[in-house]
């Protein structure tokens, strides 16, 4: 593999206009809800008004009698399936739990849990019909606090659930679905060697990904037993696999066509409406469209976990961490499967530690089943560790960035889960922030009596590889087509086109990227885990190299020489052994019919050389002590991006992650009342930051090439959301002298903390 540092790229690192940009800005791009088929019906879902209740009976007769209604389905219409773990990207999904989540069986487990679905000739009739369905409920005690849910006397959601992952097996009913532990060294000896020990507890609430486009699905079931689904999804192959499990259909009988996607951030990696729409289509013989309202999106689709976290870290007088202990309980929602495992893998990963213990618990409770959200589980964990690290630095009188440098992970450092890091750029991100104009400049003086502070925090994300397939075909005019199975949620069409252009010696504009359906490309795992430009890009690189190999063979046929005597460079072929003139790709493409036929390069990969991502952030805040409102004055993020294929998109990913992290830090939260009912079910009350709440987010791209990729690529999309809450908490402390340990740090909480400090 050629050294990335030695290679001089011509396309990689430039900023071409994105290939799908014109369609997006002119409104021509088709999203899931834009799909319309002849004879199409419309489906709506009846959802539970209770947090926990037994379903005693369901009467759908009045709904079926409403003119225009064509069918109604309930849990009784779904096949019974056993516990079956299905791998979807970085997660394993229990198909039985997933089926029960998309349609309740026996009892409802959260406010918004689907109970029945109606299909009618219009969405309005379908909506009216849901109100005619009579459901008799027997309300049950509910639990919505993760620590309460772990108690022996807590209301039990799943009587058959037993804790997994523990050496001591128990037959006791529980809400703790799984336990994870990573440990090494001698914790007691490590803490005994510490001059300073800081121990704190932290609480975070559920937050939603907040994608603008609601979930949707259009499905058509044919009489031959085949079904087609059009959907905005991060993973068309995952939709096919999961829908097949839930409806007990052969995977090859389901075709999934990915539409454009209006945001996902991990929340569109599973299924909600797809099996419902396909089953309703099967019952009616007509295509069915289903689109969620914002109320449904917030009540019934996966937010990320709320959590309770305890962090204890000790350090000696020289500023070296001697021991670290972390205890984390994460909300899984109504069914097992919080991101607690990856939280345990990431929580202490930025630091070189000899003595550590990490305990994690996956806990079910009466809230919606959680889903991935941009570096799932890691932001919560970083809040705890990065604020305690900041406090340790303060107590030792050490600059917080210098403290991180002294303890920072580097090549050869063992991760919490055991494996050693290969070449990484964490220390480089610390240096980039330390030398940045932002950190080097004094904090501007406060105005109007408001208080200002500056904080830093670092973050880590594992990144993912998994499986990808790509083809690169040469057109007769010398341009190329790149076909992949990865839905584009961050500019990956263009990044894959640029990789192919680099190999082929073309301009990025001469490569046409296509995202294909599940019957038009080989298996490709979900767009998530910051994997697409790394793994699908790897497949594109290999497919383009395959195309180059074939082009050399075609040229050799024309020139009647051996393929190894042909050189391909800068978009042209030349012969090393005779006087044949070189041919440009345009010239060669026109002669392919006489030289052996079309050229299509192919590659299917499962690359193992994943390059993890590190980042360090600095933020300036201004706090109104009277109201508790926190304003972000300035924000800078430095990130090791490996090699920035398209720097503009990388900067956009970083800025987007920071913006979401700011919302998580200051305002966003699921608010449930005493009856377990979600009260903020729209964007008016679930408050996400807008352009009015944010400064221009400054970015510093640190490029430490990933040795496991031919171009040096690392995933970049997820780690930017990890440090913001901790960085803001540290800045807020510098401003008002209060350590905030609960998210969000909303004005009432900040105001209360300041008031209590003042006595």
Counted by DSSP, the helix tally is: 20
The CATH class of the domain at 377-398 and 430-458 and 612-757 is Alpha Beta
Q: What is the overall pLDDT average?
A: 96
Strand count, sense and barrel status of the largest sheet are: 7 strands, mixed
| Helix-and-strand structural type | alpha+beta
What is the CATH fold-level name of the domain at 377-398 and 430-458 and 612-757?
Answer: Aldehyde Oxidoreductase, domain 4
Over all CA atoms, what is the radius of gyration? 27 Å
Strand line-up of the largest beta sheet = 3-7-1-14-11-12-13
3D shape: globular
Low-pLDDT ranges: 1-5
Which range best describes the helical content: under 10%, 10-25%, 25-40%, 40-55%, 55-70% or over 70%?
A: 25-40%
Q: What is the CATH H-level superfamily of the domain at 377-398 and 430-458 and 612-757?
A: Aldehyde oxidase/xanthine dehydrogenase, molybdopterin binding domain
CATH architecture of the domain at 377-398 and 430-458 and 612-757: 2-Layer Sandwich
What does this structure look like?
This protein is an alpha+beta fold and 759 residues long. Among the domains are: 21-29 and 465-605, Aldehyde oxidase/xanthine dehydrogenase, molybdopterin binding domain (Aldehyde Oxidoreductase, domain 4), CATH 3.30.365.10; 377-398 and 430-458 and 612-757, Aldehyde Oxidoreductase, domain 4, CATH 3.30.365.10. It has 20 helices and 28 strands. The strands form seven sheets. Strands 3-7-1-14-11-12-13 form a seven-stranded mixed β-sheet, with helices on both faces. A five-stranded mixed β-sheet has the order 9-17-16-15-10. Strand 12, helix 7 and strand 13 (254-258) form a beta-alpha-beta unit. Helix 15 (492-504) packs parallel to helix 16 (532-559). The model is unreliable at 1-5 (pLDDT under 50).
């Amino acid at each position: 593999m050629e050294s990335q540092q030695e290679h001089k790229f011509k396309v990689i690192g430039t900023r071409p206009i994105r290939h799908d940009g014109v369609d997006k800005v002119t409104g021509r791009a088709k999203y899931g809800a834009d799909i319309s088929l002849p004879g199409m019906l419309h489906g709506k879902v009846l959802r539970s008004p209770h947090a926990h209740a037994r379903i005693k009976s369901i009467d759908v007769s009045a709904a079926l009698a409403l003119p225009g209604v064509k069918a109604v389905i309930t849990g009784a219409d779904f096949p019974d399936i056993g516990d079956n773990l299905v791998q979807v990207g970085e997660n394993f999904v229990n198909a039985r739990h997933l089926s029960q989540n998309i349609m309740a069986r026996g009892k409802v487990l959260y406010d918004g849990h689907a109970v029945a679905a109606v299909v009618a000739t219009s969405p309005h009739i379908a909506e009216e019909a849901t109100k005619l369905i009579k459901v008799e409920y027997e309300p049950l005690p509910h639990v919505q606090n993760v620590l309460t849910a772990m108690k022996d006397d807590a209301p039990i959601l799943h009587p058959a659930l037993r804790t997994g992952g523990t050496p001591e097996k128990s037959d006791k009913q529980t809400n703790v679905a799984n336990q994870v532990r990573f440990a090494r060294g001698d914790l007691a000896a490590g803490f005994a060697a510490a001059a300073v020990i800081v121990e704190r507890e932290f609480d975070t609430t559920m937050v939603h990904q907040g994608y603008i486009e609601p979930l949707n699905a259009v499905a058509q079931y044919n009489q031959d037993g085949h079904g087609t689904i059009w959907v905005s999804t991060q993973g068309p192959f995952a939709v096919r696999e999961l829908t097949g499990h839930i409806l007990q259909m052969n995977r090859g009988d389901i075709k999934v066509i990915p539409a454009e996607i209006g945001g996902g951030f991990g929340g569109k990696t599973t299924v909600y409406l797809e099996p419902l729409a396909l089953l309703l289509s099967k019952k009616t013989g007509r295509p069915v469209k289903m689109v969620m309202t914002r109320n449904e999106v917030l009540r019934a689709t996966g937010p990320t976990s709320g959590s309770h976290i305890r962090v204890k870290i000790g350090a000696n007088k020289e500023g070296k961490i001697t021991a670290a202990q972390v205890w984390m309980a994460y909300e899984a929602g109504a069914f097992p499967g919080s991101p607690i495992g990856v939280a345990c893998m990431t929580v202490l990963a930025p630091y070189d530690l000899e003595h550590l213990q990490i305990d994690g618990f996956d806990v079910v409770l009466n809230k919606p089943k959680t889903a991935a959200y941009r570096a799932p589980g890691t932001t919560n964990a970083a809040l705890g560790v990065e604020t305690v690290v900041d406090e340790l630095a303060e107590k030792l009188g050490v600059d917080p960035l210098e403290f991180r440098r002294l303890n920072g992970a580097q090549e050869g450092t063992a991760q919490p889960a055991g494996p050693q890091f290969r070449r990484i750029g964490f220390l480089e991100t610390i240096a980039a922030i330390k030398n940045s104009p932002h950190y080097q400049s004094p904090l501007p003086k406060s105005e109007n009596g408001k208080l200002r502070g500056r904080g830093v925090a670092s973050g880590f994300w594992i990144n993912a590889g998994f499986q990808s397939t790509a083809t690169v075909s040469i057109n007769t005019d010398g341009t190329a087509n790149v076909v992949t199975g990865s839905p584009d949620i961050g500019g990956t069409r263009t990044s894959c086109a640029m990789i192919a252009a680099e190999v082929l010696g073309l301009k990025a504009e001469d490569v046409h990227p296509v995202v294909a359906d599940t019957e038009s490309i080989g298996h490709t795992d979900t767009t998530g885990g910051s994997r697409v430009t790394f793994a699908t890009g790897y497949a594109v690189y290999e497919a383009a190299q395959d195309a180059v190999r074939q082009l050399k063979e075609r040229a050799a046929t024309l020139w009647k020489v051996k393929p190894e005597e042909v050189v391909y460079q800068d978009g042209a072929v030349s012969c090393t052994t005779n006087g044949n003139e070189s041919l440009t790709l345009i010239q060669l493409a026109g002669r392919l019919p006489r030289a052996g036929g079309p050229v299509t390069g192919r590659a299917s990969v499962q690359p193992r050389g994943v390059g993890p991502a590190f980042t360090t952030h600095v933020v300036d805040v201004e706090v109104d002590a009277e109201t508790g409102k926190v304003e972000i004055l300035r924000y800078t993020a430095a990130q090791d991006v490996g090699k920035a294929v398209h720097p503009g998109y990388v900067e956009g990913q970083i800025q987007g992650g920071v913006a979401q992290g700011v919302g998580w830090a200051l305002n966003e939260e699921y608010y449930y009342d005493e009856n377990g009912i979600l009260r903020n079910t729209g964007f008016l009350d679930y408050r996400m930051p807008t352009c009015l709440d944010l400064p221009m987010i400054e970015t510093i791209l640190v490029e430490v090439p990933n040795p496991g990729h031919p171009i040096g690529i690392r995933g970049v999309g997820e780690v930017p959301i990890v440090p913001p809450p901790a960085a803001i908490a540290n800045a807020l402390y510098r401003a008002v002298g209060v350590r905030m340990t609960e998210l969000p740090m909303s004005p009432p909480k900040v105001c209360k903390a300041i008031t209590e400090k003042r006595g």
